[in-house]
């Protein structure tokens, strides 16, 4: 793929392009299924059984079970899709975003109230 | 003749909708956000459009990975409010403007924009939160809406310049519609925010305010900013801001008319993970 | 480097597929049609591509009226053969070329074509009949296919010139792909035919042949022909011919290279309701 | 709608534009449902009952029951969608097209073998 992918070099960031999308296809389609109340119920009742209905990789399933969103993203998940898991769990988008930063919920919330993360974060 | 009378720009943070739906708007945290829309609600009542052409992005709601349209125009008569995972927001369904939408689709495709025409779509917070912010909590929305969805989820997303030119094509289309309609165009999403990874929570107050300055004064120059600058400076989800350029491109000055009047400007950090930006520009 | 070695143009009449599937190819009526493809099958065996970029239109099969993309590129690894109402055709499923397709999508969107990306799609006779015509009845298709669907069902459809320019963008995209691949681009649909109303059965032999002449010799001029001429002269479904301009726009001469060599030309009336046209052009 | 619609004047021809599409939305979506074998069976068993599951107009239903394709097109049907009815009936595309011309099946077939309809047909 000779087209430039300069966005590969942004710190702490994964850009959801066609490559990621292909890798994460079923993971993301699973997430979308949680937009139906009936599916949320079935997922909550037995997460593993529900996940096993989808042709996802074992790694992807483990990442979902662990609610490890960074890992989910690495495996092709996109945050707008993954948000359906958070919604199913009753988490806010702030709780979800914070969970990826290594900060506690309160630390993250306070960082946001204080003006958010410095845009120079992680740059050389 | 239909005409575009004004453009409105606003973030569409889901937590803002939740704050309204859960009656938290009087809490100090949220009061600071909503204070920026008090003027806007009065202004909208005094300047009620017949139709709002509402540019937004779908957040993995109506569009799965099966089909990802770069630009999708809603030509339906009716749109249901989506269940994004916590049940549908308790807000009215959205009435479309099928005749005008079909006319715009026809005209804009003939101007070489390769739209996808959508006749069935549930609309998510990207569309309903701006309505709530601008209209409060009416029993039904006080105007018709043409939803226009832009892919900013899977790369490559359309460039700022493509969006800006699309706005110009939309203006031509609207102004060639025979009915005497007051149309507003709204650009939504942004401002700086990142929702993913160790860098989540990024906010760039300086860059955001410069974006607002330039959107008002030199939109064509602003349209040249490449994607990478959005990602690097405004966070991975800051890319949503390209949608504001569609609305801006539809204003009269871009086609040689008078400069729009800045009626309102607001900027605040934070709402949830996001910086909130908001502008109202009126054609004079 | 991937390169486009040749373009193939052919009608994609469903009855041709049915004739093969029902073993009627030896009947004199059909023999006349298939005789035009004898050379082509030999040629294809001697010039086997790695990938065919196959431009076709969906006939209300994968795309309902819910969503109508102007241009849709298939980036999936696999496509099933559609059931169009009489059960799926007994032909192999189609293997995609996801890496190249994703690369083309990225490049072409960045060249300001507003593609819809499709990851799941059943393919109808518009795609499988050209494969059958060119390959006969193999156990599996001898190359990978990137399906590219053009809206010619609901007006407005893209103009001939938009299609021609899209072909140029596709060529740039393919030639910037790092892998050493032999790619052919096929344009399908047409020629003159009308499937509806009291005027059904229209055939315009003279106009069709002039179209073939001009496609070979002056494609850019041909691309200026407005939609109305297609409808008036080549019948309401003759509009499918704009898809041939995508394939032609991807040939080397359009970008300043050498004129392609005409390897084969065939024209016959009728196949079912339709005139059958077929060309093979090779880049030299 | 001030945009030109010059295609309104082509003899014996209806161009499927947004206006037709809106009018024919459910008629066409009904047709697409016939791409599933199960739905074809249900339709064949009791056409009226199956049609009544769709929010089509009575006129549209009558036109389908009568297999009056010209009328279907007038009411917003598109030939590629309507073709699914023909497929369900076991009709070829030639039989369907011919049925709209007022000619017998044989007359139409012979016209096609003879080179098709004259492109000057119906013009002033
Ligand atoms: Fe958003
Ligand atoms: Fe076709």
From TrEMBL, chains A, D:
Residue intervals of the Extradiol ring-cleavage dioxygenase LigAB LigA subunit domain: 27-112
Keyword Ribosomal protein: no
Gene3D superfamilies: Dioxygenase LigAB, LigA subunit
Keywords for this protein: Oxidoreductase
Single GO term (MF): protocatechuate 4,5-dioxygenase activity
Residues spanning the membrane: none
InterPro entries per the UniProt record, alphabetical: LigA_sf, PCA_LigA, Xdiol_dOase_LigA
EC code: 1.13.11.8
EC class (word): oxidoreductase
KW Phosphoprotein (keyword) present: no
Signal peptide: none
Identification of the protein by name: Protocatechuate 4,5-dioxygenase subunit alpha
Source organism per UniProt: Ramlibacter albus
Upper lineage: Bacteria, Pseudomonadati, Pseudomonadota, Betaproteobacteria, Burkholderiales
From TrEMBL, chains B, C:
Residue intervals of the Extradiol ring-cleavage dioxygenase class III enzyme subunit B domain: 8-276
Record SUPFAM superfamilies: LigB-like
Origin: domain of life: Bacteria
GO molecular function: ferrous iron binding; protocatechuate 4,5-dioxygenase activity
Record InterPro entries: PCA_45_Dioxygenase_B, Xdiol_dOase_suB
Pfam family, one: LigB
Name of the protein described by the UniProt record: Protocatechuate 3,4-dioxygenase
Organism of this sequence: Ramlibacter albus
């Amino acid at each position: 793929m000779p087209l430039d992918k300069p966005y590969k070099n942004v710190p702490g960031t994964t850009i959801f392009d066609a490559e990621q999308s292909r890798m994460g296809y079923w993971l993301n389609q699973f997430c979308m299924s949680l937009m139906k109340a009936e599916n949320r119920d079935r997922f909550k009742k037995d997460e593993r059984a529900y996940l096993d209905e989808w042709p996802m990789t074992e790694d992807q399933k483990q990442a979902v079970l662990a609610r490890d969103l960074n890992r989910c993203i690495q495996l092709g998940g996109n945050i707008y899709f993954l948000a359906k898991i958070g919604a199913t769990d009753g988490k806010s988008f702030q709780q979800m975003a914070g969970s990826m930063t290594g900060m506690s919920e309160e630390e993250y919330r306070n960082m946001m109230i204080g003006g958010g993360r410095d845009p120079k974060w992680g740059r050389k | 003749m239909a005409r575009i009378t004004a453009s409105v720009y606003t973030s569409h943070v889901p937590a803002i909708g939740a704050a309204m739906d859960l009656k938290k708007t009087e809490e100090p945290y949220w009061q600071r956000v909503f204070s920026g829309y008090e003027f806007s609600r009065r202004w909208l009542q005094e300047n009620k459009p017949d139709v709002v052409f509402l540019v937004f992005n779908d957040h993995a709601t109506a569009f799965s990975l099966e089909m990802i349209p770069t630009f999708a125009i809603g030509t339906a008569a009716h749109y249901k409010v989506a269940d994004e995972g916590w049940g549908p927001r308790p807000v009215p369904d959205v009435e479309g403007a099928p005749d005008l939408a079909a006319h715009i689709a026809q005209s804009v495709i003939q101007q070489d924009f390769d739209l996808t025409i959508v006749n069935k779509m549930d609309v998510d917070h990207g569309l309903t939160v701006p309505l709530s912010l601008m209209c409060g909590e009416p029993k039904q929305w006080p105007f018709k809406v043409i939803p226009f969805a832009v892919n900013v989820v899977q790369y490559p997303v359309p460039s700022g310049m493509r969006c800006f030119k699309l706005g110009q094509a939309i203006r031509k289309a609207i102004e060639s519609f025979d009915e005497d309609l007051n149309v507003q165009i709204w650009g939504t999403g942004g401002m700086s925010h990142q929702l993913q990874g160790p860098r989540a929570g990024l906010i760039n107050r300086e860059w955001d305010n410069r974006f607002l300055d330039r959107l008002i004064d030199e939109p064509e120059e602003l349209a040249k900013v490449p994607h990478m600058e959005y990602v690097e400076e405004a966070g991975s989800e800051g890319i949503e801001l390209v949608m504001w350029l569609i609305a801006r491109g539809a204003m009269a000055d871009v086609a040689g008319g008078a400069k729009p009047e800045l009626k309102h400007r607001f900027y605040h950090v934070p709402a949830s993970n996001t910086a909130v930006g908001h502008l109202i520009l009126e054609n004079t």
